[in-house]
Amino acid sequence: MPSAFIIDPDITSNKLATILLQADGWRVVSMTTAKNALTALAALDLDLIVTELVFDDSDGLELIAQLRATQATRHIPIMVVTAANEPGTEYRARAAGCIHYLRKPIDVATFASELTAALRSHP
Question: What is the pLDDT of residues 3-13, one digit of tens each?
Fold first, then answer.
């Protein structure tokens, strides 16, 4: 059973992603703040991190950089699912270390399969 950690401050998006992945057989842990997520991630064994880039309390690109710099999380693939639509955001997210990038709103019919495919494509 694959496992994912979802970090999204939007409660509706967070719950939707959790429900879709659980229905597809994923084990899911979720949080709404980047700061709490950094602490929790150090103690978990996960297959994938799914994060938003837009937070009230921090910057999502900085979060990705911190995850890549931390021994406990540097090996975990990161996927971005975001409402951000500024030019260059996807490029910056990939440069920071994400393996896959989706814009919201997510497609409920394909979300879980996109995460599975992204995870499989990561060495």
Answer: 999 999 999 99
